[in-house]
Write a structure and sequence with these properties.
GO terms for molecular function: iron ion binding; tRNA N(6)-L-threonylcarbamoyladenine synthase activity. This protein is α/β, with parallel strands linked by helices and 339 residues long. Helix content is 41%, strand content 18%. The strands form 2 sheets. It has a 5-stranded mixed beta sheet with strand order 3-2-1-4-5, sandwiched between helices. A 5-stranded mixed beta sheet has the order 8-7-6-9-10, sandwiched between helices. The chain binds adenosine-5'-triphosphate, magnesium ion (MG) and fe (iii) ion (FE).
Length: 339
Amino acid sequence: SLLLAIESSCDEMAMAVLKDQREFLSSVVASQIDIHAMYGGVVPEIASRKHVECVSVVLKETLKQANIKMEDLDAICVTKGPGLVGSLHIGLQVAKTLSLAYDKPLIGVHHIAGHIYANNYEKDIVYPALCLVVSGGHTELVLMKHPYSFEVIGETLDDAVGEAYDKVGRVLNLPYPGGPVLDKMAHLGKASYALPKPLDDDSYNFSFSGLKSAVINLAHNHKQKGLEINQNDLATSFQNVVVDVLVDKTIRAAKEYGVKEIMLAGGVSANRGLREKMKEQVDMLEDVQLSLPPMKCCTDNAMMIALAGKVMYDNNKFSDLSLGIKPHLDLELESIGGD
Ligand code: ATP
Ligand code: MG
Ligand code: FE
């Protein structure tokens, strides 16, 4: 099969062409990070305007790199949600227009299913699997007993991990987004600041707003007293606490549900500290393997939407032209078959 995938849920306009299981003929990501960095975060109104400006160029480039024509495609996959309303609209409208004009089936993909299926990039996911989804807007543990079946066994009660990273980054006056910068700094410092361990209970839920506030208060208190804060040490202290709770709960859930594979997904799965600690802990489990998405598949891209869309394509899960965007789409309801 030959699939075109379109992703525009936030501030990236991305497209990719997937041939069969995992051969990518092209992948283009038009990022707006430079623009939103001036505001310290994504400005939705600007994101959708920029999408309108670049969408045709991205499509042209994606087809050119793949050396194919629209006529060659078997289907068009597009992120239908969750995400920013204005941003989602651009990608979906383009997908529907192409679907109508070239008479190609349309496949609406859940953005987080896309992040999870980035783990199909190198080899097939082994089920039952457990995925720790850590992104800018989501932090959840997803149990997959079968292909494309999703059970959310725990989630954040407040901030997502990526959001906490970015807010801490903003308080420390780091360039946006704070996540990757803090990750680098965390490898240069030592954990000299005592921070509260976030929601260390026997549920699989998470909470990061208390930790975030503790870091922000610490920074403010130092400033008020005219004391210099060691930013690298604070980054290390923050990252250690975050990574510990994420890895602990994932490993405990993996044991309880007897999964064969543990996966990471979402932008924060690029985090070096998280990847290292998870690997160390999974290595100690018997008969459980770890899957880490390749770095270029961690933050938003269209390859991941194509990989999830491919499973839907193989299961004949097509949408008609009445498909609308779903800013708050439930992942579990996207499950195909299984229980
Ligand atoms: P969602 O997928 O929940 O809708 P999103 O698409 O905005 O949210 P992603 O693109 O998946 O989010 O990830 C972006 C987030 O990942 C940002 O918060 C960014 O700071 C964070 N991030 C990226 N790299 C790293 C890293 N190395 N360490 C920590 N955080 C990181
Ligand atoms: Mg983004
Ligand atoms: Fe995302």
